[in-house]
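tool_call predict_complex ligand=D8Q
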Amino acid sequence: CTKKAKMAKDNTNGLAMCRVLLAELEAHQDAWPFLTPVNHKAVPGYRKVIKKPMDFSTIREKLANNQYLNLETFIIDVNLVFDNCEKFNEDDSEIGRAGHNMRRFFDERWTELLM
Ligand SMILES: Cn1cc(C(=O)NCCN)ccc1=O
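tool_result ok
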């Protein structure tokens, strides 16, 4: 096949992996803080501190709207969820621990799928 065709196949495989990974993130027992956008009206300081909010439902919407070029751009948004969580929450808190658990799960899972 041509290089372009191979690239297209890679993107297809990459996007299939995004769907698998996102479904597993959403199904994880520690996903609850990340399933929907943080309600900045209910969480004082969030809008000021977190410049680029991100959550799993927004990632799902972007995936459905074909806004991820490949697995890499998808991984950037997933890591944004966990980086925001670390910035706003103490490590020794319910949500802080959930964020660390979810990041570890995600890192192990996508490397498994890619290796
Ligand atoms: C990720 N994150 C979630 C919340 C939250 O309250 N989520 C709603 C749970 N029902 C607050 C701060 C934060 O960083």
